Amino acid sequence: VREAVVSTQSTGELHNQGYQCQVTCYEKQETPGGLWNLSWRTGTDSTGESVHCSMYRDLFSNGPKECLEFPEYTFLEHFGKDIPSYPPRAVLYDYLKGYWKRQGVKNEDILFRHVVRNVEYNENTGVFSVSVCNLVTEDTFVEEFDRLIVASGHFSVPNVPEFEGIETFTGRVLHSHDFRNSREFVGQRVVLVGSSYSAEDISLQLYKFGAEKLTISYRTNKMGFPWPDKIKEVELLTRIEGNTCYFKDGTSGEYDAIILCTGYKHSLPFMPKELRLLNDNQFNITNVYRNIQWYGMTEGKKDAGGRLFYLAMQDQEYSFTMFTLQAKWAVSVIKGLLIVPDRELCVKEANRMYKDNENIDDPIKEVDAQTAYVKQIAGDLNYTANTDCSQLFREWLSYKYADILTYRD
Fold first, then answer.
1. Whole-number CA gyration radius for the chain
2. What are phi and psi of 354, to 5 degrees?
3. d(Cα 124, Cα 307) in Å, to the nearest integer?
4. Would the pLDDT of 148 be above 90?
5. 147 pairs with which residues across the strands?
6. What is the pLDDT at residue 168?
7. pLDDT digits (tens, 9 = 90+) for 253-300
8. How many CB atoms are closer than 10 A to CB 254?
9. Residue 84: what pLDDT?
10. Exposed, middle or buried by CB within 10 Å (0-12, 13-18, 19+), for 325?
11. Would you say residue 76 has pLDDT above 70?
12. Alpha helices in 89-151 (DSSP H)
């Protein structure tokens, strides 16, 4: 079986069981790690490609490491000692590199600086034709594969909304994707548009580094944490005149910067439209069985005979452990170690899971739903290690709502 993997965030699972696989992995960046590769660059990189990185200096994990840990490779094993529950980015990246090494993944196994430009699928032969550009030599070539795994993530292409008068703003406007350094905003008055993890963490960063005033503008629901005096939540930004921002609740104020913490888009321009995921950041995504295997059920989509897989594309409470189990699941199907039901049953189950999104409407339900999902994947694989972090997540949430400034302590 000829196997193509787009991106290197979920490699290391193609072992010597079941069908033999000839694996080719394409990675746009020059090192593995996806978002965990911190870059000072914004906009485009040295080759003219869009910068993948959405992380920033001084970033610490906003979730406990105990909920990220691979059961078969602990933080204690990697570092040889106990470390705090909320490590900085560099520590987590080092842990990931240790896990890849443990799995036998070598840099020479990956085609770095290779970007996938186009994918075509032949329904008659079941073959994917993948057009790839070598960003170093600028040569383009096409290779054919029997299976395709897309693991390029969905936190790198910003969702940038429009606000009336934003072109008149006299300060700086940026998306959180381009935020790199809190020191830039010392003494400034900043609006953060959004009400999820980026707005939460960047506002805390700016507070700790000495911003003068921070206003978090939400569209639907406020986060509701016990914020310090310098941080407040208001309703959605409605218009801008010069350096004055007006909000839906009738308040207004003068500001030096606007940071759009407004999320990201699923951007898969290399995939044919009929095989492309919808821009749908929910806990269960449409057109895929187990949130992994593509079946193309909605209008305008086509099936790919179970040969196409998407990894780590849904909204997340769990991360490393869930991604790895998804990779194990996809590999087990490809290598014939896991037999999935027929298409009709897969489609029925995928539709049921997608409908379940209607009931996932608060943080505890999000944790419980994804805990059940991770257990489901583990059960398919007969994976017996404990993956249930629901109690830890509950404690984490309670600490945040008790004191958002010290929950990491």
1. 22
2. -65, -40
3. 13
4. yes
5. 3
6. 96
7. 999 999 999 999 989 999 999 999 986 789 999 999 999 999 999 999
8. 12
9. 96
10. buried
11. yes
12. 89-102
Q: Phi/psi at 405 (nearest 5 deg)?
A: -80, -25
One-letter amino acid for residue 56 of the chain: Y
Helix (H, G, I), strand (E, B) or coil at 151: coil
Q: How far apart are alpha carbons 265 and 345 in whole angstroms? A: 29
Let me know: does 75 contact 65? Beta carbons within 8 Å.
Answer: yes
Cross-strand pairs, 218 = 235
pLDDT at 5: 72
- Residue 261 phi, psi dihedral angles, 5° rounding: -95, 60
Q: What is the DSSP letter of 155?
A: S
Within 10 A of 383 (CB to CB), how many other CB atoms are there? Answer: 18
DSSP codes of every residue in 258-315:
EEE---B----TTS-GGGPPPS--SSS-TTEETTTEE---STT----TT-EEE-S-S-
Decide: 60 and 88 in contact? Cβ < 8 Å.
yes
Site of tokens 């939460």: 200
What token pair was written down for 318?
């769990």
Q: pLDDT per residue over 7-60, tens digit each?
A: 655 445 555 567 788 899 999 999 888 889 999 999 999 999 999 999 999 999
Give the C-alpha distances (Å, rounded to integers) separating 233 from 185, 207, 223, 343: 19, 14, 8, 47
For residue 46, give the nearest of 116, 110, 125, 138 by alpha carbon.
138
State what percent of residues in the chain have pLDDT above 90: 88
Instruction: Identify any residues that bridge with 175 across adjacent strands, giving them in sequence order.
Output: 260
Cβ neighbors of 395 (< 8 A, separation 6 or more) are none
CB distance 314 to 266 below 8 Å: no
Lowest model confidence (mean pLDDT) among 14-28, 125-139, 312-326: 14-28
DSSP lists the bridge partners of residue 88 as 60
Sequence-ordered list of residues with C-beta below 8 angstroms from that of 198, at least 6 positions apart, any chain: 176, 261, 263
Q: Please report, in angstroms and rounded to a whole number, the separation of the first and last CA atoms in the chain.
A: 49
Helix, strand, coil content of the chain in percent (nearest 5): 30, 25, 50
CA nearest to 37, candidates 7, 63, 64, 12? 7
**389/368 Cα distance (integer angstroms):** 9
Place of tokens 């040569």: 139
Q: For residues 377 and 290, what is the distance between their CA atoms, to the nearest angstrom? A: 8
The answer, yes or no, to whether residue 3 has pLDDT greater than 70, is no
